[in-house]
Amino acid sequence: MDLMIKVVKTKWWTATDGKKFTEKTKGVVNQYNGFVILDSLHVNGELTLGENLADIGGLAIAWDAFKLTKQGQSADQIDGLSSDQRFFLGFAQVWRMVNRQENVRTGLTIDPHSPEEFRVNGPLSNFEPFYATFKLTPKSKLWLNPAERAQIW
Q1: Enclosing domain of residue 56
Q2: How many structural domains comprise the chain?
Q3: For the chain, what percent of residues have pLDDT higher than 90?
């Protein structure tokens, strides 16, 4: 006998909470709308919002978990990089990808994920420990004014 589960949609946020969340996410939508690939094509911040928030939140959770480990508390350097720098390098390397231009063009219109480059640069530019680890300044390419950084959670 098959067991069927009825999924019931419920509103688990108050109207006020939903409005606040939507307001906070506008900055993420605008930030990703500004990302340009293939010289003139823009990421669709509305289409990719859910996954962008997942990437931003996932980075923060991974960082917190990393900082609980022996490596995350180590001051040792390997190949001139601190453990914190290696964490961010590993995060970026996961998303290294070479795509054909036509795949990128198609993805921008139908894929709810941002192109890999922005799955790295987007979350990192919103993450304070990244700024501190690499001592970024307003002249740095990934610098985002503190008032514009996503503070969703």
Answers
A1: 45-72+79-148
A2: 1
A3: 89
